[in-house]
Design brief:
The protein is mainly α. Helix content is 72%, strand content 0%. The protein is built from 6 helices and no strands.
Length: 106
């Protein structure tokens, strides 16, 4: 009986989830695991995580997909260039300033 109740509860929670929203969330999580080590190389914790969140929040879907493709690999020149491009956006700079951080150098 408990399994049925748990299953119905899980189904009710996921009923509001769209496949596109789930895919976007997975892509953002993958991209974050790529960006965080790059940010950590030049920015101390916890500022590295905050700056990473700003990068992810201000990346387009195409940029997120590009970053997520590097999951499990060391970030190369293309990945670093993508992160620099996202960091140069006014919206990302505003996010970083809003966190009280200095603009990271990547």
């Amino acid at each position: 009986m408990l399994r049925v109740v748990f299953g119905l509860g899980l189904l009710a929670i996921c009923a509001g989830c769209s496949p596109a929203a789930i895919a976007t969330d997975v892509t953002k999580r993958a991209a974050r695991t790529v960006v965080l080590p790059v940010m950590s190389a030049t920015t101390p914790a916890p500022a590295d995580a905050l700056a990473t969140d700003c990068v992810i929040a201000n990346a387009t879907n195409a940029e997120l997909n590009d970053l997520a493709r590097d999951l499990g690999a060391r970030a190369g020149t293309t990945t670093t260039d993508n992160i620099r491009r996202i960091l140069s956006k006014p919206s990302t700079q505003a996010c970083i300033a809003g966190q009280g951080l200095v603009q990271p150098v990547v």
